[in-house]
Structures are given as C-alpha cells and as structure tokens.
Design goal:
heterodimer; A: about 160 residues; mainly alpha; Four Helix Bundle (Hemerythrin (Met), subunit A); 6 helices; about 70% helix; B: about 100 residues; Helix Hairpins; 3 helices; elongated
C-alpha cells in the first residue's frame, strides 16, 4: 500500500514537471495530493488525511483550475529550453537532498524505528484544538478572514466598484 | 510495520522534486503548485515522526499548516490574476522590472 501510494505521488509530481500544459500539471498535482492524503491515513492520522483531501485536492486545486480557466491558458505556455537553468535546478536539488539526508541519517540506522500506525481519531484532535490550541485556532480564523478580504480587494476590477 | 525512514525518504524526495519544479518551470502558476508540494512533503515528514500522544498534536499542527497554505493560495491566486491582467503574461521571464 505504501509503495503504491508513494509511486503515484512521485510519478504525478514528475508528470507535473514534464507536462507542457499548466492545466495538465494541476490535474497531476490533484492526484499527488490525493495519494498524500492516503499516506497520512496510513500513518494513523485520519483527520489530517481527510483535511488533506478536502482542502488540498478539493478546494485549493479547484482554485488553481479556476484561475487557469480565467487566464485562459488554452494551449499552455511553451517552455523555454534553457539547459543551464535545468542543470542548475537539479544541482540545487541534489545539494538540498544531500543536506537533508545527512540531517536525517540517524533514522536510517541499523535499527530502523517504525512509524506508529495506530490511529489517533478526530475526537482527540478536536478536543486538543479547542482547549490547548484555542487561541491559535481563533487567530487562524482571523488570518483566513484577512486573506479573503485581501484576495477580493486584489482581484476585483477597478472599473466595477 | 513500515520504517519511519521510508516515509522520511518519500518526504525528502517530494520536497526536492518541488524545489526542482520551482526552478525548472517558468510560469507563476506551476511554481506556486510546487510550493504546495513542498508544504505537503513537510507535513508528511512531520506526521511520520509523531509518536504516541504527540500524534494528536501533530495533526493539529498539520491542520494549521494547511490552513495557512490555503490562505496563501487564495492571496497568491489573486496576485497572479492581477499580474496577468496588467502584463498579459504569467511567465517569470517577462517580470524583470527589478532586474535593471
């Protein structure tokens, strides 16, 4: 199960990188986020899994598709073939991969610690969210309100009040 | 049982793929998507290392990360729309006013 989901995830991100059309790339990422939600469920985090699928694969990706439709990228933007940029990007990726792998090397030791797959249900998450993290939760609602107002102000046309 | 190292490796791979996509693709929308991929990879690594009672707290933190990502996506989409309306383009090649 883990391998199937991770192959889907990595494959669709690769598909996003290789696709010429922005809309196809966005659809690939929908698949990647759905697979990521499945992986969260595999880790025993059903709340995070459901939120990932609803918010990412649902809401945020609909927003992306909607903007692609509004911008009207019918044919997609032809990519400039700059070999120098691609080489540089792969180099940066390799360096960061090496750094992060070095930082996490203790977890790949001779006695690998396994993940806990026992599920921590949404009831416990809700209780914690509304007791210990209540202030953070309320501030989050303020943040979303600010983002909403900001997005509307930015995106509205000037000639139509 | 699945070793935590596998999940961490997957998170690492996804994060690096996001970075490579950010630099290879030359339009704002796909670069934004790759930032979302990097955030998802971070969430995966975060959940993979949660143990015992920390699993509940990890889900709360992941929830906050996703909320901030959603807010960021809304504002980012508005900015991309604005850029497209002003310049008729969302390619980063065309946005070189600051380059001098």
């Amino acid at each position: 199960m883990f391998f199937v989901l991770s192959i889907i995830c990595v494959g669709s991100v690769l598909g996003m990188i290789l696709s010429k059309n922005q809309a196809h790339g966005a659809l690939c990422i929908v698949l990647a986020f759905a697979a990521l939600g499945g992986l969260f469920g595999l880790l025993g985090a059903p709340f995070a899994a459901v939120v990932q699928i609803i918010i990412y694969a649902g809401a945020i990706m609909v927003l992306f598709i909607f903007v692609i439709w509004m911008i009207n990228l019918r044919t997609g933007i032809p990519p400039e073939s700059q070999r120098r940029t691609i080489v540089l990007a792969v180099l940066i990726g390799a360096v960061i991969l090496a750094q992060l792998g070095f930082a996490a090397r203790g977890l790949f030791g001779p006695a690998p610690s396994s993940v806990e797959t026992a599920a921590a249900g949404p009831e416990a998450v809700g209780q914690l969210l509304f007791t210990k993290y209540l202030y953070a939760f309320e501030i989050t609602s303020l943040l979303i309100l600010a983002a909403l107002v900001g997005a509307i102000i930015l995106a509205k046309r000037k000639d139509r009040p | 049982m699945i070793p935590a190292g596998w999940f961490l490796s997957l998170g690492l791979l996804l994060f690096v793929l996001g970075i490579i996509a950010f630099f290879v693709k030359r339009d704002l929308l796909t670069q934004f998507l790759s930032i979302e991929v990097m955030l998802g990879a971070g969430n995966l690594a975060f959940l993979a290392l949660a143990r015992g009672p920390a699993k509940v707290e990890a889900q709360v933190i992941v929830f906050f990360v996703m909320t901030v990502a959603a807010a960021e996506a809304a504002v980012g989409m508005a900015i991309i729309l604005l850029v497209h309306r002003r310049r008729r383009s969302i390619k980063t090649e065309d946005l070189r006013t600051l380059k001098g």
